[in-house]
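HD-GYP domain-containing protein (Deinococcus aquiradiocola), 238 aa
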Amino acid sequence: MKVILPGDSHAGPFRTEDHTSVLDAQLRQYALEIGTLYRRSEQQRSELEAATLAVVNAFIIALGAHDPYTRDHTSRVQHLALATARLLDFDDGRLEDVRLGSVLHDIGKISVSDSILRKPARLSEQEYEDIRRHPSVGWLMIESFPALQGARNYVLYHHERWDGSGYPHGLKGDAIPIEGRLLAVVDAYDAMTSDRSYRPGRPPAEAVQELLRVSGTQLDPQVVQAFIAALRRETPPG
């Protein structure tokens, strides 16, 4: 059998076996090159993940030193946010974003002075304005890290309110990304049930009643219901 190579009308006889051998050699070479590229890509991804983890840990350590309450609050919020997200049918990839976003959601408070964060009394209007800037500051802190992209909506939108009265952008209803709506509910519950220097925490049952009261005004009703169901699962009876 004569095989004519494409584009070479003057080529002489060429055996099928020879052609197959050349193709096999090319395929083996391609496989080696792809394997090398894959290993290099995996190494780069591993190095990027390690660098990102180091950045996250640095942020957490800095925030914990700056404000011990926020450090402990973050841990509790992460636990309850994950439980709620599972009931909202978040897939594994989105659950990873919940883990990261809940840890970093208050990172912008690093820019707020210790005297405000640890003030043993209610804040003045000016001090409250300083606090209100922390979602935008936090977003600016992480927006240049591609590996932290999944955390951005948690950081920026967790103080938006269902009725549009929140901050920093005054978004309303479904215009608020689900990440912000989720964290707003969990954040509100933990804030109510935590002891602060200027007031004791509310009992859990009372905090749940308050969530129901503001459901549909400050908070997404669907997320409130999912959170309460998650809380019941997390809290043993009695």
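Confidence is low (pLDDT under 50) at residues 1-7. Residues 16-66 form the longest helix (51 residues). ok done for today
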